[in-house]
Amino acid sequence: MKKLKLVIGYLIYKLIATNLPQSYLRINKFSHFLRAFCGKLIFEESGKQIAIGKKAIVSRRIKIGNKSGIGEYCEIYGTCYIGNNVLMAPECIIYTRNHNYKKKELIILNQGVEIEKPVVIGDDVWIGRRAMIMPGCHIGNGAVIAAGSIVTKNVPEYALVGGNPAKIIKYRT
Known about the structure:
Order of helices and strands: HHEEEEEEEEEEEEEEEE
């Protein structure tokens, strides 16, 4: 039954919901409802009042908390835990694995991929547009990730980080 639910959710999402207009327009409340409904069918766990933006690419191995959103055109690959009240701007990318490349005697194509490292995003986090979060990173509660940042390390609670690689700029007060 669970597999059937997943297949139905993905079919509705890929064929219909992802192509509907963005839901912040008043007339498009159906878009918001349908994408959230698909999320509840697809994700491992889904809180109340979630939002999924237009054309977002999502993994089934997502656990998302209450009142959290995935922005338009975001890409989430692999296992990702998203807390409550998380704001994710458009075009964010969350990776949970990377290609192996260290053995110079082998071409990169033949080295396979790393073991998956889940990403954990705490509660009350804001992730700016086009931010990228790399495998295994933990984003602390209340953190802010500046637009265009590439997060390669864990982010402490209430830190505002930015840059490539992302560095602590200041803390929320």
